[in-house]
Amino acid sequence: MISRDEALELFKSQNPEENLLNHVLEAEAVMRGLAEKLGRDVELWGVVGLLHDLDFPFTKDTPEKHGLESMPLLEGKLPEEALHAIRAHNGEMTGTAPESDLDWALRCAESVTGLVAANAMVRPTKMTGMKPKSLKKKMKDKSFAAKVNRETIRECEKLNLELGEFFQVAIDAITPIADKVGLA
Ligand SMILES: [Fe+2]
User: How far is the CA of 111 from the centre of ligand 1 (A)?
Assistant: First the structure.
């Protein structure tokens, strides 16, 4: 399997915008946090988070291809379950339905990053001291970070995690990298 450093180099080789790089670093952190919480493969889940948007720099105008165009770039570098998760994170468009825990984890993890980051930006202390309760409030306020898909975040329930527990995992994962992703 591709190493974490190789994965980051591969991602950067696609010339991602800074926002996208921050997003995948956050997704990686949440995926690692979920794997730890659930006793799964932390390295694999982390690399899936890091690489899930590999093709985004050249599929942003063709959303039906997002996820699929990453496949040739990742062939032989990740196990099939990881490739499936990457296709399923855009399953509504790619036709790959989420099935495994890894699939569900990637979907909710990459979605929650948007809510956490938007919440950090409106807090004077950014990530420091953020609580699940404030994210729950923002979940309900549909005009807040309106593009963040609340339904996909709720898919954490497929992992037998309540929303509050999942938010805690996300906060604990992103807080230590806040300075690297512009949230400090
Ligand atoms: Fe993403």
Answer: 7
